[in-house]
Amino acid sequence: MINDPVEHLLMTLYTMYQWGEPAEKSSWKGISHSAVTQAKNPDVEETTYQPRPTVIFSEEKCPFAMPVEINKLPENLFDLLGAYQVKNYNTKGTIFLYEACIQEIGLLFYINAGRVLRMSRSYCINLVREIVLWHQLGHWITHWMPGKDHNRWNRKSYLYNDMSKDVHEALAQVFVQFAIQHIEDDNKRNHFQIIFHYLLHKQQKYYSLYNQLLKHPRFGWNNLLGAITMLRILENPEDVTIEYLLNNLTTN
To answer: Which of 64, 85, 114, 158 has CA atoms 20 to 30 A from the CA of 233?
Structure first.
């Protein structure tokens, strides 16, 4: 796994499934080059940048009193740990990580389970933070990252509200699982899964709907990305449903 959790998810999507582009295409001597080409050719020196969202670590006070038991956590925990905020659907959004809450939840996991599993306190907090980051990055990917077809989500049908929350949260969780399942180290991958499911305890149903996609008989990452591609070209936001995704799990 690449040390940078954002790079891990974005580059894995790009190298395995051609989603996104690791850097904006730039020109040298009138020829366009991708970041991959530039990496292989030292003569191509045009400046490029990583097309990734801005991530802001907010120091806002945690809005809930830390309970002693996981059962007493708010059922919208993922909303309290981070956010993907879009001012205009035509522009990429910004990721906010609420560090005070992340620290508290990481400590709670450490007290309840982590130290028994011989995980350090800082390690537990870091894993919680990366899961929250991947979840919010999942929102950015579905909204803004160009797919294999080089298109983003159609602005006519991109809408985040109570009616579409199930689709958006399911897809955000899908990309958390994508990141976790593509970690090479078995122990670390298992630790991430333990904490991920710990965070899901008694959460709103939206956050577990990803299972309908990952456990579908036609599931495969290529098939699912193909279904997301088809979903994103829709023009009517009322057509954006979990059922549409399930019905269109076809090869991308």
So the answer is: 85
